[in-house]
Design the sequence.
């Protein structure tokens, strides 16, 4: 196997597909539960979309929205837009109508490609009709003029029918008007530092922010990791159950295509179906990423480690108790720790092959090739030494160009020297790795003491009855705020508030112990794409469902001299896991 980082894989997104279609024309590129598509087929379909877009007047640099579940339509559209130098704007299938309307207008989208049909969980055409009130009555879907989205000129359905949209048959017919050579001419003009995609991330503000990401950022890291770092280094089969509009799935997808691999996914996650796919396709690399996806796989009656013997690496974020369980079940599979964010096209640091399990369970590795990292003091901005928690800064080819049409937020995040201020808290370990300590916005201020919510969450996850725990701050008149835990109990277990709080006493600092516990049913967590939405949890406390959460009689850190700062990892009951 070649060494990771032997050379840089820098390319435009369109060239990833063109190269793999040339080198592996009959190899499966995309596998879904009920269909599979070779590189030749994907290339042909993407070129068809590209020619139709040219006929609609889409030009290099134009922004084109893409709203669909994981499907061949999504993939052919993504590459079709990229082949002609268009900017792909993936739309979050979980966004509400007004959020989609905002992104379409704010992002200056000239066209939207989507799907509709009776078998879809969400009728995207109906959602877009709500978000764009003038769309449903538009006379010509190829010559739109909507007051709520001034740049939008076309709305296309890649499957299904609905008022206000150009149907697939007519869309495909447009391709006949365009010389196929026009696609190659436009593709060859694309520069690797041109903006390739704008990924909108919700964050904590009312309106999503559009991260402008270059072709180099979108392809270089994912392809290098797929080609040199993960799997077998030959023909790898990569499974990811997440949505392709999210960077956690989009990046490994592009890595798979760029390395001539086979990408396996589904329109929705169902653990039994996912396990069948993993076994049937003999996946070598897996990206379950989060406990909400991993736990159901482990608990499913059909889970059989022997059927997953082909797995060579798995990206997994979660408490160490979960990582230990997975490693015990799959001892020959490397559990890869990593950290990243949308603004860095996902991963900017990751663990090494030889790192012990206990290190990968508590730290997230070293910066990826070509990426620089600093950890700085929250107040002074000066670099900190090992063991001190501070904000992590990232600089390199993978960092976004900025937030679209938002110079103020761009200036807040990107400084004059090109450093991205992530808002994430990390520390350097003695081994020179970075270890996650939560988000600045998730840092509680308890009696003047900084407390990372992730430290409490990691400890609560050690209780045998806890399936998932999230901690937020509740206002307190004396201590400013105190921790409140939202907890999901494992199936077949029972757990009460008093029992869980008693579990904490004497084992973690007193001011870190949750003052109240709210229990959440499985499947009832408020979600934002792939993660639990803490903003919604805070709202649940604020709207009255969190009454009597604060117990201000609890001991303040200032009154407990034996308890030192939460910034000191030596006094954390369990080190945080990867982000």
Sequence:
């Amino acid at each position: 196997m070649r060494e990771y980082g032997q050379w840089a894989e820098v390319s435009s997104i369109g060239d990833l597909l063109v190269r793999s279609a040339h080198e592996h024309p009959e190899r499966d590129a995309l596998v879904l539960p009920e269909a599979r598509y070779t590189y030749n087929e994907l290339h042909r379909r993407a070129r068809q979309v590209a020619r139709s877009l040219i006929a609609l007047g889409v030009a290099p640099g134009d922004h084109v929205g893409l709203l669909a579940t994981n499907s061949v339509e999504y993939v052919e559209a993504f590459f079709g837009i990229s082949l002609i130098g268009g900017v792909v704007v993936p739309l979050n299938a979980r966004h509400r109508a007004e959020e989609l309307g905002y992104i379409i207008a704010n992002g200056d989208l000239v066209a939207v490609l989507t799907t509709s049909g009776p078998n879809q969980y969400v009728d995207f055409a109906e959602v877009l009709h709500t978000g764009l009130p003038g769309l449903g009555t538009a006379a010509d879907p190829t010559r739109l003029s909507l007051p709520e989205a001034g740049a939008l000129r076309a709305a296309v359905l890649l499957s299904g029918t609905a008022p206000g949209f150009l149907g697939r048959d007519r869309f495909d017919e447009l391709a006949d008007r365009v010389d196929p050579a026009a696609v190659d001419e436009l593709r060859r003009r694309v520069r690797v530092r041109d903006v390739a995609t704008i990924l909108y991330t919700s964050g904590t503000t009312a309106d999503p922010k559009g991260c402008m990401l270059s072709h180099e950022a979108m392809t270089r890291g994912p392809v290098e990791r797929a080609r040199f770092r993960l799997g077998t280094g030959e023909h790898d089969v990569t499974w990811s159950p997440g949505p392709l509009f999210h960077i956690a799935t989009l990046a490994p997808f592009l890595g798979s295509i760029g390395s001539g691999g086979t990408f396996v996914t589904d329109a929705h996650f169902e653990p039994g179906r996912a396990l069948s796919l993993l076994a049937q396709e003999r996946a070598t690399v897996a990206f379950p990423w989060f406990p909400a996806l991993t736990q159901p796989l482990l608990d499913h009656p059909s889970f059989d480690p022997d059927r997953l013997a082909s797995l060579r690496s798995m990206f997994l974020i979660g408490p160490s108790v979960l990582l230990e369980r997975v490693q015990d079940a799959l001892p020959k599979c490397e559990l890869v720790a990593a950290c990243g964010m949308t603004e860095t096209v996902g991963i900017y640091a990751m663990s090494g092959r030889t790192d012990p399990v206990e290190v990968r369970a508590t730290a997230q590795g070293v910066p990826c090739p070509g990426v620089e990292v600093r950890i700085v003091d929250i107040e002074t901005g000066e670099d900190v030494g090992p063991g001190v928690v501070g904000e992590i800064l990232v600089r390199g080819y993978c960092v976004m160009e900025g937030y679209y049409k938002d110079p103020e937020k761009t200036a807040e995040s990107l400084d004059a020297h090109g450093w991205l201020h992530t808002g994430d808290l990390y520390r350097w370990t003695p081994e020179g790795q970075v270890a996650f300590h939560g988000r600045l916005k998730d840092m509680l201020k308890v009696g003047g003491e900084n407390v990372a919510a992730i430290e409490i969450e990691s400890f609560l996850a050690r209780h045998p009855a806890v399936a998932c725990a999230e901690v937020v701050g509740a206002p307190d008149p004396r201590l400013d705020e105190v921790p409140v835990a939202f907890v999901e109990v494992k199936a077949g277990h029972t757990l009460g508030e008093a029992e869980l709080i008693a579990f904490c006493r004497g084992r973690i600092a007193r001011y870190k112990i949750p003052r109240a516990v709210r229990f959440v049913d499985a499947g009832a967590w408020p979600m934002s794409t792939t993660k639990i939405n803490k903003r919604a949890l805070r709202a649940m406390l604020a709207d009255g469902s969190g009454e009597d959460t604060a117990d201000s009689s609890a001991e303040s850190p200032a009154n407990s001299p034996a308890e030192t700062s939460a910034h000191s990892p030596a006094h954390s009951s369990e080190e945080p896991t990867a982000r």
Remarks:
- The longest strand covers residues 466-476.
- The mean pLDDT is 88.
- Residues 443-571 form a domain with the GMP Synthetase; Chain A, domain 3 fold (CATH 3.30.300.30).
